[in-house]
């Protein structure tokens, strides 16, 4: 029920049901199981929907604490918690270095599990690029977007929408740097993909 309410935007109802589930799970399993950690993670996401980012961080950290005690330190679920915490710090916008710290923690684990040529690694490079763009460290952002692009080209092919989004990110950063030729080049590559893959009324095509 909580998931349904969350998907429908009824976040207070979602939290009510997650709290019920939390109470039952704590009574049955105690506070150190992955089941409880997952409930905390879900509650964190709902608090993010509500815009209560400090609460979201509180519950993400509760989830991470349990995972670090009950799982191996390089477990994919630990990487997910680091990634989720990084995203919240990114949205908060006032502690971008902490966002990068947690993205790097997640990246280390995912490189160890998946290797260098995996879409989850590409996703982290992309998200780190977003942070560096917000820090106005555009060369670092461009480097990370290019790493993400390279992986996505290898794994998804030249005409995937995600590849198009990589080109869009690069275009935006080159535009900010005043490199209009490169900005236009990447914009046209992105638009070509969007035109082929998306309907003509889609925001990316219009």
Task: Give an account of the 3D structure.
There is one protein chain. The chain is mainly alpha-helical and 206 residues long. It contains ten helices and no strands. The radius of gyration is 19 Å and the shape is elongated.
First and last CA, distance: 37 Å
Q: How would a textbook summarize the main sheet?
A: none
Residue windows where pLDDT falls under 50 for at least 5 positions: none
Structural class: mainly alpha
Order of helices and strands: HHHHHHHHHH
Radius of gyration using CA atoms only? 19 Å
Helix content: over 70%
Tell me which oligomeric state these chains represent. Answer: single chain
Strand content: under 5%
In summary, what is this structure?
About 80% of the residues lie in helices and about 0% in strands. The protein is mainly alpha-helical and about 210 residues long.
Strand and helix map with partners:
Blueprint: H1 2-7, H2 11-29, H3 34-50, H4 53-70, H5 76-92, H6 96-114, H7 119-134, H8 138-156, H9 161-176, H10 180-197
């Amino acid at each position: 029920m909580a998931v349904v309410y969350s998907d429908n935007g009824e976040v207070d109802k979602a939290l009510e049901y997650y709290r019920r589930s939390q109470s039952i799970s704590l009574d049955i399993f105690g506070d150190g199981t992955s089941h409880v950690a997952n409930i905390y993670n879900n509650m964190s996401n709902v608090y993010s929907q509500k815009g209560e980012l400090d609460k979201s961080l509180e519950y993400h950290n509760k989830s991470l604490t349990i995972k670090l005690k009950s799982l191996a330190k390089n477990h994919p679920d630990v990487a997910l918690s680091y990634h989720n915490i990084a995203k919240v710090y990114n949205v908060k916008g006032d502690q971008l270095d902490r966002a990068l710290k947690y993205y790097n923690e997640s990246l280390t684990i995912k490189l160890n599990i998946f290797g260098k040529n995996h879409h989850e690694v590409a996703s982290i490079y992309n998200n780190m690029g977003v942070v560096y763009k917000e820090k106005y460290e555009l060369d670092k952002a461009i480097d990370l977007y290019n790493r993400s692009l390279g992986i996505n080209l290898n794994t998804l092919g030249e005409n995937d929408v995600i590849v198009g989004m990589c080109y869009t990110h690069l275009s935006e950063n080159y535009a900010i740097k005043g490199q209009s030729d490169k900005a236009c080049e990447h914009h046209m590559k992105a638009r070509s993909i969007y035109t082929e893959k998306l309907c003509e009324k889609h925001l990316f095509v219009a």
